[in-house]
Design a protein that fits this description.
- There is one protein chain.
- With 258 residues, the chain is of the alpha+beta class.
- It has one domain: Deoxyribonuclease I, Chain A.
- The protein is 23% helix and 27% strand.
- It has 6 helices and 14 strands.
- The strands form 3 sheets. Strands 3-4-2-1-14-13 form a 6-stranded mixed sheet.
- A hairpin with a 2-residue loop joins strand 6 and strand 7.
- Helix 3 runs parallel beside helix 4.
- The protein starts with a strand and ends with a strand.
- The chain binds one DNA strand of 18 nucleotides through loops.
- Its cofactor is Mg(2+); Mn(2+).
DNA sequence: ATGTCGAATCGAATTCGA
């Protein structure tokens, strides 16, 4: 079973790129973030024609998440939205059960500029995710937390750490909260398969960041303890970032033995 | 500070968020 996460940065603008990648890689599950489209403008027919069923949580202009599943099996929906703040109108979280695995697709807030209200929102959102993570682990179900976490976990995950120490993606508060999530027992699948490699999943559009390989590793697939032993491979489809009209993220994937 | 995208707007350029 192959599960991928891909911040698409505008689903309708990027639909040809998405369809090409799905056709090439045929992941069993694809978690998408930054759809930037309202619910009713989701390109469901094109995605169905590509062989995928989808559930999504859209929003006008910003955010938006979706889970695509290959084949004819309907997606069993577990929920939209992250509990803990009834005032939160941003579409950043969706869960689905696929082949016995609970898949959570998330788009964690960027949080810049920091400090400030956007950073506060990010940290509060992380606390809510930590609570949901504990619930999911307590359920005993196999779980994958997949998405754009907007968190650079360590210095190995950024091309030039000293430039990012005050950025919301790398600040001490952010890494501390991410560390508390990980301490629940999650496995960082990319890092566990490649302990010492510099691996990036995002390259800014500015200043030819991709050409200079000035990237970040901020897209993650975290595995519950019950799934960690099933991890067979993990990687990044880097070349997708180098194509025409690319997203600023590359698809990131794992292969599970199931 | 810079730079570049996508989406939306009392639009044909500007803003917002990233």
């Amino acid at each position: 079973m192959r599960i991928a996460t891909f911040n698409i940065n505008g689903l309708n603008a990027r639909l040809p790129a998405l369809l090409q990648w799905l056709e090439e890689k045929q992941p069993d599950v694809a978690c998408l973030q930054e759809l930037k489209t309202p619910h009713e403008k989701f390109p469901e027919e094109a995605i169905n024609a590509a062989g995928y069923q989808a559930i999504w949580h859209g929003q006008k202009s910003w955010n938006g998440v979706a889970i695509l599943v290959r084949g004819t099996e309907p997606v069993v929906e577990a929920g939209r939205g992250l509990a803990g703040d009834p005032e939160d109108a941003q579409s950043r979280y969706i869960e689905a059960a696929v082949n016995g695995v609970l898949i959570a697709c998330l788009y964690l807030p960027n949080g810049n500029p920091a400090p400030g209200p956007k950073f506060d929102y990010k940290l509060q959102w992380m606390e809510r995710l930590i609570l949901r993570g504990a619930e999911l682990l307590a359920s005993g179900s196999p779980v994958v937390l997949a998405g754009d976490f907007n968190v650079i976990p360590t210095e190995l995950d950024v091309y030039k750490p000293e430039r990012w120490v005050n950025d919301a993606l790398f600040r001490a508060e952010t890494r501390e909260a991410f560390g508390r999530l990980m301490a629940q027992g999650w496995t960082d699948s990319l890092r566990s398969m490649h302990p010492d490699e510099k691996i990036f999943t995002f390259w800014d559009y500015f200043r030819d960041a991709y050409g200079r390989d000035a990237g970040l590793r901020i897209d993650h697939l975290l595995l519950s303890p019950s799934l960690a032993g099933e991890l067979k491979a993990a990687g990044v489809d880097r070349d997708v970032r180098g194509r025409e009209k690319p997203s600023d993220h590359a698809p990131t994937w794992i292969e599970l033995d199931r």
